Sequence to fold (991 residues):
Amino acid sequence: MRLAFDLIVGRAPWLEASVTRMLTRAWRGVLGALVLAFVALPGHAAAPLSLDRDVMDMTPWLHPLNDATAADGDVTTEPDAGKRWLALDLVNPTNDDLHRIVTLEIPSGGIRRFLAGADRNGLFEVLASEEDEGEKPGARAQIIDVGGAKAADLYLDPLAKATFALYSEGPLDGATWRLWKPEALAASKQSETLFMGLMAGAALAMSAWLFGLSVFRRAQEPAWAALALGALVVLILGGSIYAIRVEALQVTGAILIAAALRFAVSHLAWNYDRPRVALMLDGFAFAIVGFAIALAAGVTYARPLVQLLAAAGPALAAIVALAESPRGARAKALIPGIALMLIALVAPAFVPVGWVAQVANVSVLADALFTAGALALAFAAAVPAEPELDEKAVEELSADGRKAREAEYRYALGLAAAHQGLWDWNFETDELFVSPSVEALLGLESGAFAASERKWAELIASEDVQLYADSMNAHRRQGNSSFTLEMRMRHAKGGQRWIQLRASCIANAKGKAIRCIGVVSDITGRKAQESQRQTDETADHVTGLMLRNTFLSRVDGIVASMQSAHGRRHGAVLAIDVDRVRVVTDSMGLAAGDRFLAQIARRLDHAAGSEDAVARLGTDEFAVLVLGSRGDEDGAQVAQRIRDALSQPVAIGDKEIYPAASIGLALIEPGHRFGGDVLREAEVAMYHAKRTGRGGFEIYQPEMKPRSAERLIMDTDLRTALERGQIELHYQPIVRLADGSIAGFEALMRWRHPQRGLLGPGEFIALAEETGLIVPLGRHAIEKAASELKRWQTYFPLQDPLFCSVNVSARQLFRHEFFEDVIQILRDQKPARLSLKLELTESVIMQNPESAARALGRVKEAGAGLALDDFGTGFSSLAYLQRFPFDTVKIDRSFVADMARNEETPVVLRSIIRLAHDLDMSVVAEGVETNGESSRLQQLRCEFAQGFLFGQPMDATSAYNFIALKGRGGSPSAPRELPRHSGPARIPRQL
Fold:
């Protein structure tokens, strides 16, 4: 052993003399022994090596042995510079055995081990040789395993001196050799193992959470982050706790980087916004995994490519993500993780050597920073796509922060405008955003417009290009403005599409338009119908049959002819309820339900006579007017033919549906005054038929619907109430929430009954609807409200004229005389334009949407305003806001009352109000009874409100005095004539 050591080390005579002098001085004290221990090599004049410290950096006391001396004295050179011997001289100046452990810390250790440039890198062998040979060796050394790495275990007898030769392989630039006490090393490794275990546990828990999140969201982004963290767990354990082969660590590291790149692509939606960057990063991910597998298989030249790709790919992703961070919250969420990982990778190269020597396990600290950065990046997967700003933040946004507010606005509008496409042109950046549904409408792939408005304009038909350009230029010059534009656009697969753009230009504080945002709709079908023929306003679009109002008008004519001396024709009305209509619609879809109804309608029309009339009253209700000399017999025969026709199956696709109908019959008699009375009796008989089972038939008998004496008296009194002046209008104030000033009133009908006192509309309006008296009562209400409104506007001339709302029923709206009545009233009273507002509910519109749209358009052109009452209580309110020309939306009182109980109600109200404002409509909240409700509505940007908090319904005199006290005008002034077209074009939000 001594000979082998001499051949390797090649000890010189001067070395033996130095060691002898050190042993002599060791007896004089510990300090002298330590000094002599470091003069063994005169060329390494370093501070004394203190053997009583738990751990210390011993790198300065090691000297390389690159020359080996043979037995014959010849000198040879080590052939491989990566393999080296290092010598350490130690002296034990104590009377106890000296036991120390030498470890080697490599800068590329830990998690970054897979990027190392060599397969073998570290300490592999140790030899010991004492100065004086004896029977018992005084120095011993062996290689031991410490936490998956090799270490040298050194023993030195009391007062002995020895030289230890350490053999290492691989590049060791920046490596640190440390000398440990065994108990200190054990404690350090235990702490390191615990720390690394905690990091691995945190990463594993985050990975499991992200995997569950990906399943819940059905998204790829959390799944890629979970895969990257799983690979990180393997690297943590393989770098400190378990001995894992270098090849496996290289493949795992490649998977980590590749999954991280895929996470960045999906997180920042680069596959849509930056397809080239996404393609490049996907190429990096695929290549690094491929080359890592090749390197593990033994292809050594793949190592530089793996290292290059591992540095270039993440660097490119970090640069692009940081560049996008000012424009999006999701990019900003990546900044903390990127910063921590950059510090972990770059900081060790800039830490002074002296600092590294004083701190053990520097690589563990770097691994901790790297793991913290990875967890921060993975946590960004939970960041929502478009975070909604809270109310306080919205109020504090300035003009420079408009872009962030509009991102929230776009999100809210997209939720509200279901089945529509968004169109958003930023004039300042000349960027155009369109939703994928708009691109699909034109047959284009997602991202085809590439944020370019020019590409959009290129698809406009040549006949409409000038119209588009002129309209956009005109509204840009106006600043804040709204418009509707219909134009043709070319489809990618040929042909054209009619497109409707309902948009608003938004101006900055200087009045300059900076953005135009709107909704795109496909109106090709509507345009095709308009070009072919004018739709019959009285026909149902599914069955082609007449609707309820037209049918009642026909029955009214028969009833009137019977009351006259010339009318001798008899007849009957059949009310038919068809079974299984809702079952077919719910199970097979709306299209199948429409086909089923169309076939039922054809059978009913075939069963009826040539002079009979067939109508559709509701979803599954029909009616037949049977004319003949003997209405009961003819009606019974028609009913039997209908029952026979509906007993046969109806083929819907590959299925056969067996319908059935319950039929009620009522005879038209001279005692009837309105067609509605006959239809109501037929419906009563039909309900009795339904009780007997499917396919029942009943003829109306008076005992089927007994009427109390009180109801009969009410019916009789109501017919004469209008002639006797008992019908009054009371007015409930509508105020501005901004300053509490009076803005207008809602006219509410009251019946001052001679015996029962003042009756509200709930006690007689339903009866008026049934008997048809609602028509004259409604005309009286409109005429009286218009007269009172003209009086208010004359005596209280305000900058924004007062308005008055009047409720309109379906029986009024769909009468041919209704339009002429409104025109005549407006011409006679001459109120300010659009200040007389007609209120309609969804139920009125749903009876005949096509006819309602045309009737409302004519009324609006005549100068009357339109309000949608009880908004939000139906299932299709959002569609009505765009389809019908309303200028005011009235929020139902149920929403106002529910604000304090349901935290989701204010969110719904905010969306309704924003959508109404975008469509250039004002908003009135009904049923406000507390100051808290008023304040909350004002925070939600609601302009007007009515309720008992501001005033109860009052008669005309009290309303006049109320205006004098609460209005802006103070006391009333002398009357003056208003210009015919004075006042706003609508009830604006500025009122």
